[in-house]
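Record type: monomer structure entry
Structure origin: computed from sequence
Chain ID: A
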Amino acid sequence: MDQRERMKAEVERWRQSGLSQKEFCNELGIKVGTFAYWVSRSKESEKKK
């Protein structure tokens, strides 16, 4: 799985989890800023469809 596929999968998991971004990031062990970037990128790719 490349980085883009992981990003999309994690954003989708977060949306379904009901957790805040901070809580979700703590579970994944990544920075909130990194995840916020992933979320913004996934929104951009959805607009292009």
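Annotation 1: The mean pLDDT is 91.
Annotation 2: The chain has one domain: 3-48.
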